[in-house]
Amino acid sequence: MINNINSWTSKIIIATVITIIIQMILPNGKNKKYIEIVSSLYILYVILNPILNIDKNVSILDIKATIAGMASGEYVSKDDIARSYILGMENSLKAKIEELGYKVDYIQFYITADYTAIAKIEVKMIKDSEFDKNKIINLILDNFQLDKSNIIIS
After folding, report:
1. Distance, C-alpha 55 to centroid of its chain
2. CA pseudo-torsion sign 1, 44, 60, 76
3. I need a labelling partner for 108 at 20 to 30 A (CA). Which of 21, 74, 89, 153 fits?
4. With contact defined as beta carbons under 8 Å apart, do 82 and 111 qualify?
């Protein structure tokens, strides 16, 4: 951790020194202000790069949980974030199906254990309502990367 911070600060210092040298060498002219903007953006990039390139193994749900926990002052688990995210997807899909004029009883998303993909979607329509199963399946396939065999409509 300390090595990463040392490396980061040395990169910031090197970028700043290079920027200062370039600005000193350039003659005063029309293009100097543009080069100053570009060099300032480069320094900003060097500063933000470690923050934006968070460890590739960390999932989006981990990041959302951390941000939500920091914002509220309390820790939010990965399960809580996943449930709220899935509930939002379920409500969105229900609204899209109802826009087609169909009546939905409930929608259930099943996700993989590592929270990286949707394993199955189950849609239960209101009894005695008419619906076109293929239209609903196509709507789901258009919105989610899922195999057709993992869509259950009843």
Report:
1. 14
2. positive
3. 74
4. yes
Residue with tokens 């005063």: 28
Question: Is residue 141 predicted with pLDDT exceeding 50?
Answer: yes
Pair type for strands 118-125 and 151-153 = parallel
- Cα–Cα distance for residue pair 32/67, rounded to 1 Å: 39
**Residue 74 in 3-state DSSP?**
coil
pLDDT computed for residue 129 by the predictor? 82
Residue entry with tokens 């509930």: 87
Which pair of tokens denotes residue 57? Answer: 């193994």
The C-alpha atoms of residue 121 and residue 89 are separated, in whole angstroms, by 11
Helix or strand (DSSP H, E) at 122 = strand 118-125
Distance CA 62, CA 79 (A): 10
Q: How many CB atoms lie within 10 A of CB 81?
A: 22
Cβ atoms < 10 Å from Cβ of 145: 7
Q: Is the dihedral of CA 28, 31, 34, 38 positive or negative?
A: negative
- C-alpha 6/C-alpha 77 separation (Å) is 31
